[in-house]
Write a structure and sequence with these properties.
Length: 524
């Protein structure tokens, strides 16, 4: 008993002398397991706990991390990966080639892909084989233009701890991860709280500076954010437009908080159910009507305070796949004309009906909280003007995503973050994504399958860009997803927090130096 007390005292003293952790406010995440990542908030913690095979620098160039080198052979049909010697997992076991192969196999399991299918390129690699403790050979039927992105998205896990159970969501390791990065989770995390400490056994190339991090879901916080920062419950937080504006103008937080803003490769969007057995939106004409109802004028009014970027292409300007061609702005009058031409006539209650007597009633799911200016509510107001009834239902984000994956409802309103390579977004639109439930729109088009496959295996950069421009045209035409506005990443940074930077995608994580370079200055 005395020995246990002594150990506890030593640990407490070490923690106190190590300095304050950086406290980051984020929205709720779903997992800390790299195999099951479904949203960008998952990555915010995972990126500190796990090293990748390769990462990227602040300019967006790929650089080695767990890998010492990679060699491309046979015209791109074979790749030899060499792991850095001397690296270990956080339990002390050596990081080996078999761990990389195990991770690839685990990501391909149907029960894993039913939960998370955000690494389509990784799972479509033809063959990975361990050749000795530190060498992996990748064999490909065709060369891949996505190779470096695939290596970036393959985050190895230790095979000893990550044997996938029958229900991956319930695996204990999801919130007690055993990683390879410079930080490790203290105790057991939850979907709302995670404490990280610097791991003294880290031998990789990209260490951390801060003694630790604390991530908190502050979505339902009762106290004002500036008060939380004043009392140092938070050092970094995303800010809504009004709060950011007030800080920038010096109305609140002066001398305490720095506002930072950067364009981000993400957008708000309406995802539309294209399955005619489940939704009226299986009719392309009605999806085109929704496209004409996008409330761009309401969203553009925010330009009094901030430049609002109205979306025109699926891939935003921060992505190399961005299609810059101008597209006509939505027009409510055009939506009414389309309904008239399709035979939808106003009924006695003002809601349109078709020749079969079906009411033009749709259900859209919106993440909480119930904001009258939320995209779903604005769309419903537009629709009411032309005799379309859109019922708004509110769910927490995790429940909304489950509804979308099960194709329950007509529309789902939420944000989408883009990756380094447009191929990562292929599950949203392909038949393979339909099988794994990543294609929430139930959109099936053989030409889309062909184009994504062609883009994956095209090496010439300009030729690849043309392919994704064609894909963007089809998305705009068929409207399985309607991007509304491109996101501006607005954050508030405590005056003690230093070295906050963003990568070319507008993210503060997922690159070197990124969050690993953050540090807190000594309190004055």
């Amino acid at each position: 008993m005395q020995r246990r007390l002594l150990v506890l005292v030593i640990c407490l003293c070490s923690s106190l002398s190590a300095g304050d952790p950086i406290r980051v406010a984020v929205s709720e995440w779903t997992t800390l397991n790299p195999l099951l990542i479904t949203q960008d908030t998952d990555t915010e913690v995972v990126d500190l706990v796990f090293d990748r095979l390769v990462t990227m620098d602040a300019q967006g160039q790929f650089i080695p991390e767990l890998l010492e080198s990679w060699t491309i052979l046979k015209g791109g049909r074979e790749v030899v990966l060499k792991l850095r010697p001397g690296l270990t997992w956080q339990d002390g076991a050596p990081i080996q080639a078999e761990d990389v192969v195990h991770t690839w196999k685990a990501l391909r399991l149907p029960r894993v892909r039913q939960v998370a299918d955000t690494v389509a390129g990784v799972t479509s690699l033809d063959s990975l084989v361990a050749e000795g403790p530190l060498t992996v050979r990748i064999r490909l039927k065709r060369p891949r233009g996505t190779l470096m992105s695939d290596l970036y998205n393959l985050i190895p896990v230790p095979r000893r701890h990550y044997q996938v159970g029958p229900n991956p969501r319930l695996d204990k390791v999801n919130f007690t991860p055993v990683g390879s990065g410079p930080y490790r989770v203290v105790g057991q995390a939850t979907t709302k709280h995670a404490v990280l400490e610097r791991w003294p056994g880290y031998r990789g190339p990209h260490p951390g500076v801060a003694p630790g991090f604390e991530f908190l879901d502050m979505t339902g916080a009762k106290t004002p954010l500036i008060q939380d920062m004043r009392q140092e419950r938070i050092h970094y937080s995303v800010a809504n437009a009004l709060r950011y504006y007030l800080v920038k103008k010096g109305a609140i937080g002066e001398g305490l908080v720095t506002p930072l803003s950067v364009p981000q490769a993400s957008f708000g969007a309406y995802f539309l159910n294209c399955d005619p057995r489940r939704s009226l939106l299986g009719d392309l004409k009605l999806r085109q009507v929704i496209g004409e109802l996008v409330p761009w004028k309401d969203q553009a009014r925010a330009r009094r305070f901030f430049p609002t970027r109205i979306a025109s292409s699926f891939w935003p300007p921060e992505s190399w796949a961005f299609d810059p061609q101008p597209r006509p702005l939505p027009q409510v009058e055009r939506a009414a004309s389309l309904l008239d031409a399709a035979g939808w006539r106003p009924g006695p209650d003002g809601v349109r009906r078709d020749a079969r007597g079906r009411r033009l009633h749709l259900v859209i799911y919106e993440p909480e909280p119930r904001d009258p200016r939320a995209p779903a509510n604005l769309l419903a107001q537009q629709a009411a003007r032309i005799g379309m009834e859109i019922e708004v239902r509110y769910l927490d984000f995790a429940s909304l995503i489950r509804k979308a994956m099960d194709h329950e409802g007509d529309l789902w309103s939420y944000a989408w973050s883009l990756a380094l390579d447009p191929d990562v977004d292929s599950p949203l639109f392909t038949s393979e994504g339909y099988r794994t439930k990543a294609n929430v729109s139930a959109y099936l088009n053989p030409e889309m399958d062909r184009l994504f496959d062609e883009g994956r295996h095209t090496l010439d950069f300009e030729a690849r860009k043309r392919i994704y421009h064609r894909i963007a045209e089809i998305i705009y035409r068929d409207k399985p997803v309607i991007p509304t506005t491109y996101t501006q990443n607005r954050v508030l940074v405590h005056r003690r927090l230093r070295r906050v930077t963003f990568n070319p995608l507008g993210q503060s994580y997922g690159f070197w130096p990124g969050r690993r370079a953050w540090n807190l200055e000594a309190a004055s």
